[in-house]
Amino acid sequence: MPTYNRKDDLSAAFNSFWREALNSNEDYYSKLTLKEFVHLKKAITNINNIITMLVTESFVTTLHKDGVISTPQQSEMLKQLFETHANTNGFDVEYSDKQMKIVAEVKCNIPVNETSFGAAQENSIMDDVDHLFHSKKKSDLTPKAIQDYYKFMVFLDVENVRIAAQKLLLKLTKKGYQIAEYTSKTKLQKDTVYFIYISTEK
Hints:
Oligomer: single chain
Helix content: 40-55%
Strand content: 5-15%
Radius of gyration: 20 Å
Order of helices and strands: HHHHHEEHEHEE
Shape: globular
Structural class: alpha/beta
Number of strands: 5
């Protein structure tokens, strides 16, 4: 009966990811020293910010594809996204011109309970939904001003996120929040927060 080998297990998982990502058969595990693994760990600390940025970019692209925003509006929203520091306070998207006002929070949570968000995840999302209705102290938008914005809660569409989000939607609705799931045919209302799911394939 074969015995477990931690090094073989970890190196296989490591190489499997990089080989698929880089379309290569290299043994990347063997090529890296401990010092280089430490550098890699430091680089990966930014992975959440990278994912949030990419999901936000895809969200803006989706709005443009669906005809919600124009090409100049898309360009300006992306310009604001790329010029804003990852740790800047406020909403992930906060756009306003004479024709369109959009505010959005982006969540890239993976449900910790398979088909449900964990308590901390739920509380964070519910806080963000409340902020979309009433604004927050770290935003320049006043509670009155945010009422004129179309509001979105953006989710990364990974396995079981839709199921978990739909459970949360029901909880929020019972609490009196006006929540709906966005589709390309949705007629947007400013008194509603729309759940929108952004695929990793976009």
